[in-house]
Amino acid sequence: MERTFAIIKPDAVERRLAGRILARIEEAGFIVRGMRLQHLTKKEAEGFYAVHRERPFFGGLTDFMSSGPCVVMALEAPDAIRKWRALMGATDPAKADPGTLRKEFGSSIERNATHGSDAPETAAFELGYFFRGLELI
Predict the structure, then answer these.
(1) pLDDT tens for residues 53-95?
(2) Fold for the domain defined by 2-39+71-132
(3) Contact (Cβ atoms closer than 8 angstroms) between residue 77 and residue 2
(4) Edge-first strand listing for the sheet containing 31-38
(5) Hey, which residues does 31 pair with through a beta bridge?
(6) Under DSSP, is residue 2 helix (H, G, I), strand (E, B) or coil?
(7) Which residues are known catalytic residues?
(8) What is the pLDDT of residue 132?
(9) Is pLDDT at 136 greater than 80 in this prediction?
(10) Domain boundaries of the chain, sorted by first residue
């Protein structure tokens, strides 16, 4: 079993899609080991996306991620990182495969409904950023 970190982003929460996305997560065989609704502050979003600080999209990304509540989750499944990224689809919804979350629920590269860790090291950092100790079952 492997754990990964996932976010249902503010655009999807605002559009009342969190339940539909969560149902797809469970249908795909993931176990939710931690979950909460959280409205990130600008500072929390900047800390979370610090790896992108020098990139031109950093300001817009952190503004967006702090614009409304999101759902943060710890997901568990065999090969969870790869499996979650496949379920999400390509970052750009226009390039995502049919049936993926981003194809179905995303509207742009920025407003693409979901986030997921891309590697074991990233998952460890991201899970630790949002969940501490006994919060994960």
Answers:
(1) 999 999 999 999 999 999 999 999 999 999 999 999 999 999 9
(2) Alpha-Beta Plaits (3.30.70)
(3) yes
(4) 31-38, 70-77, 2-8, 114-116
(5) 76
(6) strand
(7) 115
(8) 84
(9) no
(10) 2-39+71-132
